[in-house]
Specification:
Layout (H helix, E strand, L loop, with lengths): L1 H30 L33 H5 L3 H6 L3 H7 L4 H4 L3 H7 L3 H8 L2 H15 L3 H16 L1 H8 L2 H9 L1 H8 L2 H9 L11 H9 L5 H4 L2 H8 L2 H9 L2 H8 L1 H8 L4 H5 L2 H9 L1 H7 L3 H20 L9 H9 L1 H8 L2 H9 L1 H7 L3 H9 L11 H9 L5 H4 L2 H8 L2 H9 L2 H8 L1 H8 L2 H8 L2 H9 L1 H8 L2 H22 L6 H9 L1 H8 L1 H8 L2 H9 L1 H8 L2 H7 L4 H5 L2 H8 L2
Length: 577
């Protein structure tokens, strides 16, 4: 009897629970119906797909993300789209959709990925290289960013060096010695014109001092006797040669490149530019590592020059930005590229950078605020109330979905202090709610930006420079692209010993590489999945057509996209069209 009573009790408790759950679902459905405002781009409301019944395979108990995704306007548009229907009909599409973030990343460079998918071996090779780049230590990437700062600050000199990549690499490997030579440009030019004549000094640097002190007795020096005599009298320069005598053999080993460089008009911009060589010397470790791939090093100089040109076009000298700011642009180029996609949001973040730097330590809370910025507008007049609300997030509907994240934010005294110091940040978000919501709808791009406190700190430290950039989002995007290209080229140069020349060349110039480096595990899995690659290769045209559509991006970047594609309800929806 007790057993029967116990069983009956369980039955009634379970039944009551189902009633409560059903009531909650009805309430939530009425209170917060899915709507087109949560989809990127301008998408008109569409008639909802209504399947007669959801099957057991459509949804996990307690998880209604798939049916909700299928009720969005983006889904309604896509199931009627011929390109989308062609792709999802391919047997390999389910494998392709296994990682929504990777799929969204591929949509940023559809032609490049479709072409790569037709060559699985190349796809796999680039994926391995991307994994190696992603595994590079933060210190290495910071060194590359420092090199970027040095190159931008001396763009003309480095552009001149890039004309002769082999000579550039030699100078990068022996930066301190060349910095000494830069103080004596006439002697430098004479040595560059006839580098072979100085080769023997590599094994006897003391002899170089003696010869330079009596230059008329040395044919290669006699034409610039006064210049060499001055060089010999420069104890600091002589010490640099004594410390690195291999500079002479480096010049002799690349004699043709140095002669060509010395004969070009650009040499004048280079030879006397002690700042450029000093910058290389100050970042010797970075430049020595990068010198392994002369071609990539030259491409890096072009990217730095492009960045400088874009900054100048906006009436803002790149030199006006501090070295840390330039380095931050290189180290966080993807974050700045994401910001540039929404100019109004970028302007707001630039104007309140310190507050957003605090939010960047709590990306989940940041994302929730971006998705519903208007709900936080009132806190602009009462920032202390924000702390109270964040400490009890379950009571505040706009925070309840990320309760743990807001609780952590409330417990972060430094972040709370930053928000209380600049409460107008809440108003800035609310006034640009649509822009912030659009950013949040692309999870991959938003994550690259939202969790990057270094990028916001750089903005805060260079407020006027970034405020100027916010007035020209197109220029900002181009500058971020130049910085991003620089990092890819730096990766190719740094990994010269691990990859063949062809791989290095493709890596430095491929838009696919950056996407792979951002999601190395996902692309490694895809490289081992022939069905996924075949689907992408066979549907290249359809994928290219879809890539530019906001509705597709909204679906593809949704965490539930893969589960939806595998569901019975999805198959029925596609079959009903």
């Amino acid at each position: 009897m007790p057993s029967r009573i116990s069983n009956n009790s369980k039955f009634w408790v379970a039944g009551a629970s189902l009633v409560v759950i059903a009531g909650a679902v009805v309430f939530v459905g009425q209170k917060f119906p899915p709507n087109g405002a949560h989809i990127a781009g301008t998408i008109a409301p569409a008639e909802r797909y209504r399947a007669s019944q959801l099957s057991a395979g459509d949804v996990t108990l307690g998880d209604n993300s798939v049916p909700l995704l299928m009720q969005t306007d983006a889904f309604q548009m896509m199931i009627k789209n011929p390109s989308f229907r062609a792709m999802v009909a391919d047997p390999g599409f389910q494998a392709l959709a296994a990682d929504p973030q990777a799929l969204a990343a591929m949509a940023q460079a559809p032609q490049a990925f479709s072409a790569l998918a037709s060559h699985p071996a190349q796809f796999a090779a680039m994926s391995r290289d991307a994994q190696a780049f992603a595994a590079m230590s933060g210190a290495n990437q910071a060194m590359n960013a420092s090199a970027f700062s040095a190159m931008v600050d001396n763009s003309k000199a480095f552009a001149a060096m890039s004309q002769q990549p082999a000579a550039f690499a030699a100078m990068a490997n022996h930066a301190s010695a060349f910095a000494a030579l830069a103080s004596h440009p006439a002697a430098f030019a004479a040595m560059a014109h006839n580098a072979q004549a100085f080769a023997s000094f590599a094994s006897n640097p003391q002899a170089f001092r003696v010869a330079a002190a009596a230059p008329k007795a040395v044919p290669a020096m006699a034409g610039q006797a006064a210049a060499f005599a001055a060089l010999a009298a420069d104890s600091k320069a002589m010490a640099a040669f004594q410390s690195d005598p291999k500079v002479f053999s480096a010049m002799a080993g690349n004699a043709a490149a140095f002669a060509a460089l010395a004969g070009s008009p650009a040499f004048a911009a280079l030879a006397g530019n002690g700042r450029a060589f000093s910058a290389m010397a100050a970042n010797a470790q970075a430049f020595a590592a990068l010198a392994g791939n002369a071609q990539a090093l030259a491409q890096m100089a072009h990217s730095a020059e492009a960045f400088q040109s874009q900054a100048m076009a906006q009436g803002m000298a790149a030199q006006a930005m501090s070295a840390p700011a330039l380095a931050a642009m290189a180290a966080n180029s993807r974050a700045f590229a994401s910001m540039a996609q929404q100019p109004a949001a970028f302007a707001a973040m630039a104007a309140h950078a310190s507050a957003f730097a605090a939010l960047a330590s709590h990306p989940a809370a940041f994302a929730a605020m971006a998705q519903n910025a208007s709900a936080f507008a009132a806190f602009a007049n009462d920032s202390k109330a924000f702390r109270v609300a964040a400490a009890t997030p379950a009571a505040f509907s706009a925070m309840a979905g990320q309760a743990a994240a807001f609780a952590a934010l409330a417990a972060d005294s430094k972040a709370m202090s930053a928000l209380q110091s600049d409460p107008k940040m809440f108003a800035a978000m609310a006034n640009n709610a649509a822009a912030f919501a659009a950013m949040a709808r692309n999870p991959a791009a938003f994550a690259a930006m939202a969790s990057n406190s270094q990028a916001f700190s750089a903005m805060a430290a260079n407020a006027s420079a970034f405020a100027a950039m916010s007035g020209s989002p197109q220029a900002l995007a181009q500058m971020a692209h130049s910085a991003e290209a620089f990092q890819a080229q730096a990766a190719a140069a740094s990994m010269a010993g691990q990859m063949n020349a062809q791989a290095l060349a493709s890596m430095a110039g491929s838009p696919a590489f950056a996407a792979m480096a951002s999601h190395p595990a996902a692309f490694a899995a895809m490289a081992n999945n022939p069905a996924a690659l075949a689907s992408l290769a066979h549907n290249a045209q359809a994928f290219a057509a879809l890539a530019g559509q906001p509705a597709f991006m909204a679906l593809a970047s949704n965490p539930s996209f893969s589960a939806m594609v595998h569901s019975d309800g999805f198959a029925k929806a596609i079959g009903s069209q």
